[in-house]
């Protein structure tokens, strides 16, 4: 039905562990992000109140947010075996930037993360119905675009451990006039990719508050869990009442390790902040990952919750690619205005 040669090349270009789902190094001491998160959770039961702009939030007492307030002493972080090798972050200076909630240290460092992503085919007509103008779906071939469903586990980071789920649409670079295939090849060469996030629930209040009030992203608080072992991944998100929403079970593809800082990529998401278009970039250091094209034995159970309904509305059914990240390092910037996008007329 489809030109598979063209489709494979398109998927390679666009299956990017979208929007925070980037692969990185398996760190020392055989620690995995899931075991780190469990260990940290057991050690940080008590909480303390911190401020994010005008908002007050409970965070783990003695955790990274409590100790460093988003401006960590990397020499101190390096002493934490759970953080792994942090040389990558020494290349990225933090700055105190103005935001809608006041001055904030940026970027936000995620020292140890893991994720699993399904890249799914969806009718472009349904994707356009969910995208605000002037954004357009990037089409690997006419009539079809791409949706990513990604479960994340952030084991060690500036805002402490939390889990997150993203539903996003891969979009064209703003004001692009060349062919979709040309844009795909350009993204491959430059390692720059673009998208629009439709849903981004989290399981800690500090992650929700920062996402909603700092970025104006569609975040809400709900139970999430993800486990990756040597054979399979199991990921679940629940409704706020505890009932199942989405459940994912899939075998683990072969994991490949690459040299530190040999696969640096930038992902950019677009969203409106106070009615004006902004862009938010995340830099990734890819070191350990596994991928499977047209994967078998992937079970995605939809139980009628908000994410299940959203994926149904998008018409996302065919899984084109499975990406599993065993360990990852990320640097997430604060949103910056994009007046050129406000001027585009469709």
TrEMBL record:
InterPro entries: ADC_dom_sf. The keyword Signal applies. Keywords: Signal. Residues 1-26 form the signal peptide. SUPFAM superfamilies: Acetoacetate decarboxylase-like. This is Acetoacetate decarboxylase. The lineage of its organism: Bacteria, Pseudomonadati, Pseudomonadota, Gammaproteobacteria, Moraxellales.
